[in-house]
Design goal:
Blueprint: E1 19-24, E2 27-31, H1 33-53, H2 55-68, H3 70-88, H4 97-121, H5 123-136, H6 138-151, H7 153-166, H8 168-182, H9 191-211, E3 215-219, E4 234-238, H10 239-245
Helix pairs in contact: 7-8
């Protein structure tokens, strides 16, 4: 047995080559290298035999202790797991600022590649999720669009020009609504009223395709004269009649020949 107050550690080699074994009854026991190895092998063999001979009792005692000290057992188990992890995964040296930036950029690039691959594989799902997010976050969408317009004015103008050329009726609808809003003549519209206004502009497109000359949505009482952009103040007219009417509040139809009866 080891002495509690022993000053030397077993295996300490003295200047004369003697090896410390233990301290017993206040006396230090030093052995030669040959005797030290022989006694060490004997103790190891005896400890192993004793360990194997009492394995059942030892397992029962350990099981009993774990049941009586569950919290302490969990605490020791976690500590052992942490120590094992630190031993197998020693801490890495701290990264420099350049290495941190490069690591973050690599992660971002990897995430972008994954997102691009997912979008190519699931275009409909991605579009549906994007539309749902935009509907739920209109303020963030408006802010993002505003920042993009400020950073890319030339590209914005190009996109706006292509969009206006592809859907001219929508451009006219928004322009009329904007003029009414500037003059404070834009009342709050219900969903049905908005759909009705859409129908007027869709009808103008259908008539244009049907007859071969352009139709427009006209305000019966012009906006300049106080008219509003509401279904009750809208009508579909050929472009020549609409231009002749202009901003007049009352238009005399008998003074104008309809393009439907014209030879042009």
């Amino acid at each position: 047995m080891y002495c509690v107050n022993m000053k030397q550690k077993r295996g300490t080699i003295r200047e004369d080559g003697m090896i410390f074994w233990q301290q017993k009854a206040g006396k230090e026991i030093w052995l030669t290298a040959e005797k030290f190895e022989k006694l060490k092998a004997y103790c190891k063999k005896y400890a192993k035999e004793k360990y194997l001979a009492n394995s059942d009792k030892r397992k029962a005692d350990a099981q009993k202790w774990r049941q009586e000290n569950k919290e302490r057992y969990l605490e020791l188990s976690r500590a052992w797991q942490r120590a094992k992890y630190r031993r197998l995964h020693p801490p890495k040296p701290p990264l420099t600022e350049e290495e941190k930036s490069a690591k973050i950029e690599a992660k971002k690039q990897k995430a972008r590649e994954r997102a691009k691959a997912y979008a190519l594989a699931n275009p409909e799902k991605v579009r549906a999720n994007a539309l749902l997010w935009a509907k739920q976050n209109p303020e963030r969408v408006n802010l993002r669009n505003k920042l993009w317009k400020q950073k890319n004015p030339e590209r914005y103008k190009e996109f706006q020009k292509k969009y206006n050329a592809s859907v001219p009726e929508k451009k006219r609808k928004h322009a009329a609504a904007r003029r009414c809003k500037k003059k404070n003549q834009s009342p709050l519209l219900t969903e049905n009223q908005k759909k009705t206004i859409e129908c007027f502009y869709s009808q103008a497109v259908r008539l244009t395709e049907r007859f071969g000359f352009q139709f427009e949505v006209d305000h019966i009482l012009p906006i300049a004269k106080g008219g509003s952009h509401t279904p009750s103040n809208l009508q579909v007219l050929p472009i020549k009649i609409n231009r002749a009417k202009g901003c007049k509040e009352v238009f005399m139809w008998q003074d104008y020949q309809s393009p439907l009866s014209s030879d042009e």
